[in-house]
Amino acid sequence: MILRPTYLEKLDQLRDKQIIKVLTGVRRSGKSTLLELYQNKLLKEGVQPEQIQVFNFEDWGLTDLTDYQKLYEYINERLVHNKMNYIFIDEIQNVSHFEKAVDSLFIKKNVDLYITGSNAFMLSGELVTLLSGRYIEIPVYPFSFKEFIETEKNLSKSEALAHYLDRGGFPFATELKDNNTYLSYVQGIINTVLIKDILSRMQRGNATLLEAIAAFLTDASGSLINTNKITNTLMSNKLKTTNMTVISYLEKLVNSYLFYQCSRYDIAGKKYLQVNNKYYPVDPALRRALLGQKRPNMGSRLEGIVYLELKRRGYEVYVGRLGNKEIDFVAVKDGVREYYQVSLSLQDEKTYQREITPFLAIKDNYRKILLTQDPGNYNDNGIEQKNVIDWLLD
């Protein structure tokens, strides 16, 4: 089992603090396993079993507790007085009005509360209003390359990267060596998200249309797109839709954590742009599951894992615009910016000049980093060129 120490350390930093720990992320990204690992850590450190209560609302055996009042009463009756109680609630969005139960538990001084959810709607509406300032979100992603390579110790680093770009990092999927079994598992994740997390929450939903939009986003990963382009493509494929329907489905795909929207940022004007975004799938595995054996654009796939790695490292990430030039990523953390360009190789001089030209137009002194699969690390007039494998494993 991969221990994922970054997440465990984050939970440990927040332990016993009066703030709700909310783990969010796509289904099967490892949220439940993280909570299980943390429970084991608590037991090893002397917490007694009766101080821990665990609920997973994907378990139909807990149907009676999906009413928030019954859930609260059940937990409250079993609290150990004069000791800290650790409450873990998995897939809490399946509890009606769960925010009321969470708020009532939060105000107790002897309750340390951990919850997970697979849909961003749980962090909207009443939850935000009722619990504003009382929770901290911890995004959980499928395995990073650094975590993935721990499962493929028989491969070289470059072989492992090729494998990762193809098969992705859903934790359980890394244990499935048979290609057909692996593919069925990933398709099952996608179908569950599309049907259970999206369509089941809509009065009238079109599964064929939703999957077609998901496939379009996967194929167009790394390209600037707008809703008109998606709508026209779908219509040309004999799928009736409208711009408003596409916008609604895009929002739901992002809220289910299956895709991430990367908005544009005007570097010179220091403002965010509202049109023409990029979308990246949560994991490279989505490509084969949604597009089959269609020939991949390896550059865009590499760009996608760099985007997700920046998100894992806590950056806000945008597409940079400077006049008619584009910077792959503007990454912002703690008020400090970094600029990234991603390319398979820069050994061709024309390619190198194309990639550094946008960097040369930037007038500030923030870091400018070129990530490629070329060996070695270089620094040319303040522009850092790094091997992407070294950077991913840093």
From TrEMBL:
Membrane-spanning ranges: none
Domain called DUF4143: residue spans: 196-335
Alphabetized InterPro entries for the sequence: AAA_14 (IPR041682), DUF4143 (IPR025420), P-loop_NTPase (IPR027417)
Residue ranges constituting the AAA domain according to the UniProt record: 20-148
The organism's place on the tree of life at top rank: Bacteria
SUPFAM superfamilies on file: P-loop containing nucleoside triphosphate hydrolases
The protein's name: AAA+ superfamily ATPase
